[in-house]
């Protein structure tokens, strides 16, 4: 049995492309649709109800394209909208927080886990909640790293400026003896080399992006939703959609995907009034 | 690296031996200690604070025997005591509810999950909570099956009496169209054949016991805690401890383990007053 429907992946911008890259790497036969809401990026500064509505609009759009699974490849949108979205749609929906939290719980030996994330994600406490749900005895240290996203989007993924910021953010996690650190933002895989070097070989780094891709594979395989082409060369295709300038998306996005993005389609979301949403609590 | 410390498994009685059987089956090199609190069985009729205290006492006993991981192989004790226990001890502690809930979430296609459990477990709502935490859009139907445990303990694991009870309990789950059913009690693997036959091939049956054993394997392997003997014949050994009559435990337990239990040790828990417990909320 083969299920050729695409996987839908969305984010406020290009960060979620690191999740898409991991999905394509692990599930090369799957078709994918990536949706970047670049007209409204970033989500971190908006209120929760607004982010929930954006997520609802985007998932409705992806569902109209017959996706078999949706990945909310954005920490802010996962914290704000995952549960509401799961209640509102029939398609399975996966966020980026639980898979990373779960991997950290499985791997920590001293039960001290560090989380690097944006200020909005840290403020939501979503990782601490998810980890504590799985093992209430684990101490979680969340560290906001406000400079990382701007640096990475300017193309600075190594060098002294990044190094200095990384040392500053990691010091508190090191002081507390965390033996596992979660990269709790989809931008961070681009700087994992620097972070890994500073933390050293005794601390394990967990990428939410990689763990989310593994979870996508588990769900598809256990439900019998994998695409199984007849020929091994028949790899899955990817479609890119964004709400602002497609060329800008392609230029910035290619670095996050670690591969050239050829064509990006402009998205036109149905401009329904907010009152249309069946479930917005 | 090899970690020869034993895994501790406990239950109010013999039911948890189905979890032990799965652990031994999947992790044959691990040493295990099974603790059956047969003097105080069943836990389902006691209040939560009391069950928490029993769990605390037993885990303290197992920790004094240098276990590397504890499995609460009892649904009632997991619902009552897991989080408190995780906060109170350094050793990782795994319950039987989350692994089964997680497997159900991964496997359901129509997002309707049935749960068969004892009245106490159904009343706790623990499976519904665990499933909803992973996918808030899944509908969970919990069915109390009060007759199963008494029948199984009387040795009735097939035949018309069991069949009639099973059909009665399963009918509501079938009517609601659940495509996955969780065996939410450690006794139930002994009657899975009958349940499977009634549900038919289109409904997947998930054994909490089996999923918990898989989770034990994941934690040990990801933390580097597996025992790796030098010779393939050097299998793990098992020790059985109970708080009431050892011979009775051996006779009844052998059916749950599906293997003869040779020796059972009487346990002597430190009779400390309840006020000694550091964390009993």
UniProtKB/TrEMBL annotation, chains A, B:
Any matching Pfam family: Asp_Glu_race
Broadest EC class assigned to this enzyme: isomerase
Record-listed E.C. numbers: 5.1.1.3
Keyword Cell wall biogenesis/degradation belongs to the record: yes
Coiled-coil blocks: none
Binding site for substrate: 11-12, 43-44, 75-76, 186-187
Reaction(s) this enzyme catalyzes, per UniProt: L-glutamate = D-glutamate
Isomerase among keywords: yes
GO biological process: cell wall organization; peptidoglycan biosynthetic process; regulation of cell shape
Positions of the catalytic residues: 74, 185
Keywords: Cell shape, Cell wall biogenesis/degradation, Isomerase, Peptidoglycan synthesis
InterPro entries reported for this sequence: Asp/Glu/hydantoin_racemase, Asp/Glu_race, Asp/Glu_racemase_AS_1, Asp/Glu_racemase_AS_2, Glu_race
Pathway(s) the chain acts in: Cell wall biogenesis; peptidoglycan biosynthesis
GO molecular function, one term: glutamate racemase activity
Similarity field: Belongs to the aspartate/glutamate racemases family.
Entry function: Provides the (R)-glutamate required for cell wall biosynthesis.
PANTHER family assigned: GLUTAMATE RACEMASE
Protein name from the UniProt record: Glutamate racemase
Gene behind this protein: murI
């Amino acid at each position: 049995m083969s299920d050729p429907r695409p996987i839908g992946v969305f984010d406020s911008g290009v960060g979620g492309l690191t999740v898409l890259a991991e999905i394509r790497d692990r599930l090369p036969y799957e078709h994918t649709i990536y949706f970047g809401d670049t007209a409204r990026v970033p989500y971190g500064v908006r209120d929760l109800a607004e982010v929930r509505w954006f997520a609802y609009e985007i998932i409705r759009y992806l569902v109209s394209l017959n996706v078999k699974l949706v990945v909310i490849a954005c920490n802010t949108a996962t914290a704000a909208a995952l549960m509401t979205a799961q209640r509102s749609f029939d398609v399975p929906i996966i966020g980026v927080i639980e898979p990373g939290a779960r991997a950290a719980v499985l791997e920590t030996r001293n039960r001290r886990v560090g989380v690097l994330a944006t200020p909005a994600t840290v403020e939501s406490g979503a990782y601490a909640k998810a980890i504590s749900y799985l093992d209430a005895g684990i101490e979680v240290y969340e560290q906001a790293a406000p400079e990382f996203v701007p640096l990475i989007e300017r193309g600075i993924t190594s060098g002294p400026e990044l190094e200095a910021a990384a040392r500053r953010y990691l010091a508190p996690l090191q002081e507390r003896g965390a033996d596992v650190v979660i990269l709790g933002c989809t931008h961070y895989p681009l700087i994992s080399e620097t972070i890994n070097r500073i933390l050293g070989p005794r601390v394990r780094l967990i990428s939410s992006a990689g763990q989310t891709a593994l979870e996508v594979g588990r769900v598809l395989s256990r439900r019998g939703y994998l695409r199984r082409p007849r020929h091994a060369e028949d790899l899955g295709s990817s479609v890119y959609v964004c709400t602002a300038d497609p060329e800008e998306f392609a230029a910035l996005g290619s670095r996050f995907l670690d591969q050239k993005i050829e064509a990006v389609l402009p998205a036109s979301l149905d401009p329904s009034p907010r009152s249309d949403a069946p479930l917005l609590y």
